[in-house]
Amino acid sequence: MKRYLLIISCIFFLYNCESNNNKKEVLSSIASDQQSDEELQKELKKIEQEEKAKVIAEIANRTSISFEKLTHDFGKVKAESDNNYKFKFTNTGKKPLLVYNVKASCGCTTPYKPEKPILPGQTDFISINFHPKASQSGEIQKTITVEANIEKKITELQIKAFVSN
């Protein structure tokens, strides 16, 4: 809408201009703006098509995952101790499973992800090292976020423990 008002204003200005040079400059400016807008629109369409292609490719490569369990309770643990657990999972889909990222909600928990694709039907593990600090005494619960090429994209795992000094 603003664009049309600008064009109308320019046309009105042209009719009121006294010199032909001013008219040519204004017309040239309008043509240049229209050309750059057309180029911008073409570029935006190109980017939009590339993004759509990426999404389609991602959807086509999705698979499914099944964890043996989503929560592990370490029970009573000592502060400053190493506590390890492996969350077992299976690729239950028809495409290779890619675990992109695994992160913990706290620095006391270090997760490890598989580096290679997991083929359909294969089993692997998300390994966890929980090392509570003395300041974390009492009941704790931490979240491990697993990002993969699955329908929900993110799966959350939980660890629990009662930390004593």
Question: What would you note in describing this structure?
Answer:
- 15% of the residues are buried.
- Strands 1-3-6-5 form a four-stranded antiparallel sheet, with no helix packed on it. A four-stranded mixed sheet has the order 2-8-7-4, with no helix packed on it.
- The protein is built from two helices and eight strands; from the N terminus they run ααββββββββ.
- The protein has helices spanning 2-16, 20-60; strands at 65-67, 71-78, 83-91, 99-104, 109-112, 123-130, 138-148, 154-164.
- With 165 residues, the chain is an alpha+beta fold.
- The chain is 34% helix and 36% strand.
- It folds into two domains: 2-60; 65-164, Immunoglobulin-like, CATH 2.60.40.10.
| C-alpha end-to-end distance | 69 Å
Report the sheet-strand fraction.
35-45%
Percent helix, as a range, is 25-40%
Please, what is the CATH homologous superfamily of the largest domain?
Immunoglobulins
Q: Which fold does the CATH topology of the largest domain refer to?
A: Immunoglobulin-like
Q: Mean pLDDT, as a whole number?
A: 83
Largest sheet: 4 strands, antiparallel
At CATH level 2, the architecture of the largest domain is Sandwich
Low-confidence region ranges: none
CATH class of the largest domain: Mainly Beta
| Shape annotation | elongated
Please trace the helix and strand order, writing H or E for each element. HHEEEEEEEE
Specify the number of helices.
2
**Assembly type:** single chain
Number of strands: 8
